[in-house]
Amino acid sequence: MKAISLPRFGGPDAFAPIEIDTPVAGAGEVLVRVHATSINPLDYQVRRGDYADLVPLPAITGHDVSGVVEAVGSGVSAFKPGDAVWYTPQIFGGPGSYAEYHVASEAIVGRKPEGLTHLEAASLTLVGGTVWEALFTRAGLRLGESILVHGAAGGVGHIAVQAAKATGAYVFATASADDADFVRGLGADVVIDYRTEDYVEVVNRETGGAGVNVVLDTIGGDTLERSAHVLAQLGRIVSIVDIATPQNLIEAWGRNASYHFVFTRQNRGKLDELAALIARGQLQPHIGKVFPLDGIADAHALLERPRNGLRGKVGISLVDEAASGRT
């Protein structure tokens, strides 16, 4: 099969195409023909060596799969050949999704939502699971609460806005002026232009100083540190970004706040919850750009570029959508 290997850590040019044997499904595993995958910040962080101790080289990386079951191993009961599935490969647990075939444990695989193409589904597995864990498992976002989503036009942010609205939350969102209409279309109640407005001033003005119940940080740095200034009492800050410096704990302490740092874990349950939102028309992933498998380097370079103008995710297509369809 064709695959994209990472023989060394470095820039986008570190990747190399290879031909290797197609893997075989073992006990409790499924072999999947990968129709689509996508690019996440985690992918370029792995590529450049941020997690070098956890990624033996050479490696096949990638963290999203949507495809069709080719074969099943002994003991598999939930799936059969021909089933359309989606999942996030076990992070740091073996080969990733930049290949024509992938083997995964039955336990982390879900049935692909019928309303999504493979490209759409592959754009959602990691970011969707991250959003679900961040907002609901960790922050406990509830009906009637308010939330500030940083980076609302991005891969995680545009899913978070929709998921929060589906829960009945009031959503503040930061984005550029160019993305404001897009973010409002996702359901955001107040869109703040991060280039010309101070989100702390806007949120406190709009809430009469009460603040928001939850902040989802996808930016880090100063954005994460200042987020404590918009928290309500007993507020929760959830960040998906590695931190390099201490945060504003004095301000958070005064508001009885809690911090959660999320590195998502794989399981079928989160995929099923996301599928329910999709079936109800409350969640739709957006793909800003699509590349072929041999365009992985260009896809990485685009996503890694600051202020790249992307809305949503960067997708990688391995099978013609016209052939795979919305199955």
TrEMBL record:
SMART domains: PKS_ER. Residues 10-316 form the Enoyl reductase (ER) domain. InterPro entries: ADH-like_N (IPR013154), ER (IPR020843), GroES-like_sf (IPR011032), NAD(P)-bd_dom_sf (IPR036291), Quin_OxRdtase/zeta-crystal_CS (IPR002364), Zinc-ADH_QOR/CCCR (IPR051603). It holds the Pfam family ADH_zinc_N_2. Its main location: cytoplasm. Keywords: Cytoplasm, NADP, RNA-binding. SUPFAM superfamilies: GroES-like (SSF50129), NAD(P)-binding Rossmann-fold domains (SSF51735). It is found in: Cytoplasm. PROSITE patterns: QOR_ZETA_CRYSTAL. GO terms for cellular component: cytoplasm. GO terms for molecular function: oxidoreductase activity; RNA binding; zinc ion binding. PANTHER family: QUINONE OXIDOREDUCTASE. Homotetramer. This is NADPH2:quinone reductase. It comes from Albimonas pacifica.
